[in-house]
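Researcher: Re-running this chain for the archive, since the previous output was lost when a drive failed. Same request as before.
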Amino acid sequence: MAYLNSLSELESGIAALVSAYPSTCTAINLPNTTAQGNTVRAMRIGTPGEKIGVAFLGGLHAREWMPPEICLSFAADLLEAYDLGTGLGYGPVSYTASQIAS
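Model: Regenerated structure tokens:
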């Protein structure tokens, strides 16, 4: 995945994932805006009714090493693995299909 050049590209990426995986991915507008007045958005990945979760944050500060692209790319990988019933691996670490599903 290439670096995103604008907020609209990030928003398009979120919208694409929500469209591709509507049963497991939703977009949420958070209640507060940025200093520039932009809406802050989040994605919720999971099935309705799930209470357990993990938050992945990126792009909170300028020039940080974990840009929003990493979170968007990870979300895409996770959603695809769940949808296809496959595992997921990054370097020497891998997760089975059942671990992804849970």
